[in-house]
Design goal:
The protein has 256 residues and is α+β, with helices and mostly antiparallel strands. It has a single domain (10-249), classed as Creatine Amidinohydrolase. The protein is built from 4 helices and 15 strands. The strands form 4 sheets. A 5-stranded antiparallel beta sheet has the order 8-7-9-14-15. Strands 1, 2, 4 and 5 form a 4-stranded antiparallel beta sheet that branches. It is globular and about 45 Å long. It binds 2-amino-4-trifluoromethylsulfanyl-butyric acid and cobalt (II) ion (2 copies). 2-amino-4-trifluoromethylsulfanyl-butyric acid (MF3) binds next to strand 4.
Length: 256
């Protein structure tokens, strides 16, 4: 049995909206700083500086012992990649950045995948398909719907683009804590899920693969999640407020 969904107060929503906005700005500044030839440790240091300049602190750093300001996952890495001074970003790579910022007692959480230089048509399909799946999930995030409607919308687009849907990691409520109930899977099959109500804030975050949905966790660092077949993966994440009417994307603008 999962815990009850969190409905945020209007006062909390003001702080959450601000935290999400700051986090989105930091996300896009980091994305703009990605250059071939740099290491992922350099990129993480840039991210740490941007988070500090924005007046926040990283909600990733130290989370369960995570040793970076942000998660940086390249190519076949799905999520939770760790900075490395020996990992060089190259043309043809895709770089997923996942940024979590604490500010003023609230937290923002947003991710995007950036193509570096020329990528193959398959990789373009992966990135465009993942964004489209996220947007479809957001459109379903309306009061009166259930979490399962969001999951179904994401899954349908993923299948249409022949992309594997990661099952071991899911979206989640967010706002005061990084991870709040409910869970927001990118796949269906466990019933329709909790009702969406105004004041809920959910992170919708499809993690889609060019090949298998299966993933493995690095045996040495115990963090880095990779596709089972080594094919590329993409990850886009927005924080969305459930309102009386249209969903409000707190980590706007829409991506790509
Ligand atoms: N940002 C991730 C999410 O979307 C959580 C990362 S936790 C960390 O839920 F420890 F890996 F940073
Ligand atoms: Co995230
Ligand atoms: Co998240």
């Amino acid at each position: 049995m999962s815990r009850k969904s969190i409905i945020h107060t209007p006062e909390e929503i003001i702080r959450i909206r601000r935290a999400a906005r700051v986090t989105a700005e930091v996300r896009d500044r980091i994305a703009g700083a990605i250059e071939p030839g740099m290491t992922t440790a350099q990129l993480d240091d840039i991210a740490g500086a941007y988070i500090a300049e924005a007046g926040g602190t990283s909600a990733c750093l130290g989370y369960g012992g995570f040793p970076g300001y942000i998660c940086i996952s390249l190519n076949e890495e799905v999520v939770h990649g760790i900075r490395s001074a020996s990992r060089i970003i190259r043309n043809g790579d895709v770089v997923s950045i996942d940024v979590c910022v604490n500010i003023d007692g609230a937290v923002g959480d947003t991710a995007r995948t950036v193509a570096v230089g020329e990528v193959t048509p398959d990789v373009r399909r992966l990135l465009a398909g993942t964004v489209e799946a996220l947007d479809a999930g957001i459109a379903a995030a309306r009061r009166g719907n259930r979490v399962g409607h969001v999951s179904a919308a994401v899954e349908k687009v993923a299948h249409r683009h022949r992309l594997g849907v990661v099952r071991d990691y899911v979206g989640h409520g967010c706002g005061i804590s990084l991870h709040e109930p409910p869970e927001v899977p990118n796949f269906t099959g466990w019933g329709s899920g909790p009702l969406l109500e105004p004041g809920m804030v959910i992170c919708i975050e499809p993690m889609l693969n060019l090949g298998t949905w299966k993933v493995t966790t690095d045996r040495n660092d115990h963090w880095t999640v990779r596709t089972g077949d080594g094919l590329y993966s993409a990850h886009f994440e927005h924080m969305v407020l459930i309102t009386e009417n249209q969903p409000e994307i707190l980590t706007w603008p829409k991506m790509m």
